[in-house]
Structures are given as structure tokens and as C-alpha cells.
Design a protein that fits this description.
The protein has 2 domains: 195 residues, no CATH class; 163 residues, no CATH class. It is 50% helix and 7% strand. Strands 2-1-3-5-4 form a 5-stranded mixed beta sheet. Helix 5 packs across helix 6 and helix 9 runs antiparallel to helix 11. The chain is elongated and about 85 Å long.
Length: 369
């Protein structure tokens, strides 16, 4: 909408109000095309409009809140400029795109103003949000790619003026080679990402170990984003703290994944899985829990903000002293910072990772006399 309004205002004639262009047939056709494109890409808005509007209102409210794990992070504008865009594009391509933005602003005309009418205001808006997710920068990527392309063409043209040997190379070939070099890093990341997703997730490895090493009927407390385990059919009705949330087996799953329930005639084959949402060893003893599974997608976020989450931090320290660490399943990227975007799919340190998923730690609890 903003680019269209700006186009009308900049192309207005003295003898004709600028808003008249909005009621022309081609403007109506463009608006109709935008609506159709939105509905094709977001059919949920038409199929369940009430839920869609509720979700939009909820998301608008959430952007003012700092999400769990980003309490000490960069301001949103710098978060996207220094992390989201360089991570998605690769640092060299992101820098070239920034140069393209500067070039576009220097040579700004009507076409450039219309072109930037969406990405610049959008960047400034998400830069004011307290909530910081890498995915907020996705709408900026096509514009960043176009800005980078403009910068590459300008650099090749300038090089052909100053470097005689470059004039012997066809301009199209020079642009293609430069673009290929800039794309090498993001394409390599893409290949590494898909290769990584083809390996077993840490949660699959941990679940397999539990099912082979721990007897059926064992009571296990699992942090959110832990392994998916077969649950005895009676557990959901027996405990209000039962396994109901976040037992995702793959990186694509998240909150709301429910562990499978073993049929009643095979109930002895499942586990009594409790969600670890009360960080209290006393509660675990009262619930007769024998094992605890910690997920790096949760405990690492707690540990980097112990001033906000003192109870979980004390629990981890006490568990380390009194429990027995039986197994650690690492991703290979445990020493680097944990970005919230890594929780939904591997995002950073792709070459260091040996498998997707969080670091998992399985502790055995001492048997009380």
C-alpha cells in the first residue's frame, strides 16, 4: 500500500489531485491482485478468519515482550542488521547489499523512492520491537538481494573503467562471476543445512538410549524440547504435570508436540513421563521420579539469565551435585551462543554441528531411603 501511495504522490500533476490515481482501473487491478496473492499464500485467513484475527492480535501484543532467551540480546535494529541478515545471506553478501543501499540512497529518484518504500519502513518498525526473531527479517531478503545486485553491477562498471584487463572480460561474465563468489557462502550453508537435517536428531538418539537402557514403567521428568517417549496410557490421567508439551522429536516440531500414548493393552511398555516444569528435587522425589532429562534449548537459556530465573539455576546446580549424569547427547555446537532461531531449526554454526537438536543430559536421581 505504501509504495502505491508514494507512487501516486510523486507522479502527481499540478492540475490533478494525487489521490485520483488510486481510483483508476489499473490501481484497482493491482489492489485486487494483492488481495488474491495474500489469500493464495495465506488461505488460513479466509478459511478461519476469527482464529486468524485472534492470532494477528496476539502476535501484535507479543512483539512488545522480550521472549525467553533474548533478555540480554542486542536492540532489535542491530539484532537484524548484525545477526539476522548476515546469517541468512552471508556476511560478504550482506555488506554488498548495504553498499547497494547506500548507492541507491545517493542516486535516489522516483523509482528508488518507490522501491524502498516498503523495506526501509519495515526495517525501522521491526527495529522497535522488543521481540527479536530472525524470521522477522525474511521479507527484507528479496530487497537485500536486489540491492546487492545493483552494487555488483556498479562495482563491475567502475572496475571496467579503471582496470584495462577487466575491459577485455564481457560485462555479463564479470557480473556472473562476482555474483557466484558472493553466493558461495549462502549456498554452502544451504547444503550444510540439508545434510545436517538428514542426520538423527539428538532427541532421537536420547529416546533410543532410554528405550534400550531404562525399564518400562520408569518415571522420567523431561524438560520442554526433550525427546519423545512412549507414554503409558494411564499417565495422562494420573498426573496433571504429565507429558503434554514440547516433546518434539525433530527440529521442525515445537511447542504442542504430544508424546505417543501406548495402548492400554500394552501399557506396561510405556514410561511415566512428567513434564519438568517445577524445578524442585523435592517434588521429583514425591512423584517418585528416577530420571531427569534436561534440554539445552531450555537450560541454556535459563543459565544465561540466572538473575531472572534463579530457581531453575539453583535446581541445575543441585541436580549436578546430587544426581548422576548418565548420558550427554551433544549437537557439536554446544560451546557457541544459543540463538532463539536455533530452536526451530539449525541456524548458526552449521559446519560445527554433527546432528540437529538441543544438547540433552540424562541424570539418574539417588534413591531415597
Amino acid at each position: 500500500g505504501l509504495p502505491m501511495l508514494l507512487a501516486c504522490a510523486l507522479r502527481a500533476r499540478p492540475t490533478r489531485p494525487w489521490w485520483r490515481c488510486l481510483v483508476r482501473a489499473d490501481a484497482g487491478l493491482a489492489a485486487a491482485g494483492a488481495v488474491v496473492g495474500f489469500l493464495v499464500g495465506t488461505p488460513f485467513a479466509a478459511l478461519a478468519p476469527v482464529e486468524f484475527l485472534r492470532g494477528v492480535v496476539g502476535e501484535v501484543g507479543e512483539v512488545r515482550a522480550v521472549q525467553f532467551g533474548n533478555e540480554a540480546d542486542l536492540p532489535a535494529l542491530f539484532f537484524h542488521l548484525l545477526h539476522s541478515l548476515p546469517t541468512a545471506m552471508g556476511l560478504p553478501l550482506a555488506l554488498v547489499a548495504l553498499g547497494g543501499l547506500g548507492l541507491t540512497l545517493i542516486r535516489a529518484g522516483i523509482a528508488e523512492a518507490i522501491w524502498l518504500a516498503f523495506p526501509l519502513p519495515y526495517l525501522l518498525v521491526i527495529g522497535t520491537w522488543s521481540s527479536r526473531f530472525e524470521r522477522y527479517a525474511v521479507p527484507l531478503l528479496p530487497f537485500a538481494a536486489l540491492l546487492a545486485a545493483r552494487a555488483v553491477v556498479a562495482l563491475v562498471d567502475a572496475g571496467r573503467v579503471r582496470l584495462p584487463w577487466l575491459r577485455r572480460v564481457p560485462a555479463g561474465l564479470a557480473v556472473t562471476v562476482a555474483a557466484a563468489l558472493l553466493l558461495a557462502l549462502p549456498v554452502g550453508r544451504l547444503v550444510a543445512f540439508h545434510r545436517l537435517l538428514g542426520r538423527p536428531d539428538t532427541r532421537e538418539v536420547a529416546a533410543s538410549w532410554i528405550e534400550h537402557q531404562l525399564p518400562s514403567g520408569t518415571r522420567i521428568a523431561v524438560e520442554p524440547y526433550g525427546p519423545s517417549l512412549p507414554v503409558a496410557s494411564g499417565v495422562l490421567g494420573a498426573s496433571r504435570k504429565a507429558a503434554m508439551l514440547d516433546f518434539a522429536r525433530s527440529p521442525g516440531e515445537g511447542a504442542g508436540a504430544i508424546a505417543p500414548v501406548v495402548p492400554r493393552d500394552h501399557a506396561e511398555g510405556g514410561y511415566w513421563v512428567l513434564r519438568l516444569n517445577a524445578y524442585d528435587l523435592g517434588w521429583l522425589r514425591r512423584e517418585q521420579v528416577r530420571y531427569v532429562v534436561l534440554s539445552g534449548f531450555v537450560y541454556r537459556r535459563h543459565l544465561q539469565a540466572c538473575d531472572r530465573y534463579p530457581e531453575p539455576c539453583r535446581f541445575y546446580a543441585e541436580l549436578g551435585r546430587r544426581g548422576t549424569l548418565l548420558l550427554t547427547v551433544g549437537s557439536g555446537a554446544d560451546d557457541g551462543p544459543l540463538w532463539v532461531g536455533d530452536i526451530y531449526a539449525p541456524l548458526t554454526q552449521l559446519r560445527e554441528r554433527v546432528r540437529p537438536g538441543p544438547t540433552l543430559k540424562i541424570y539418574g536421581l539417588p534413591v531415597e531411603p
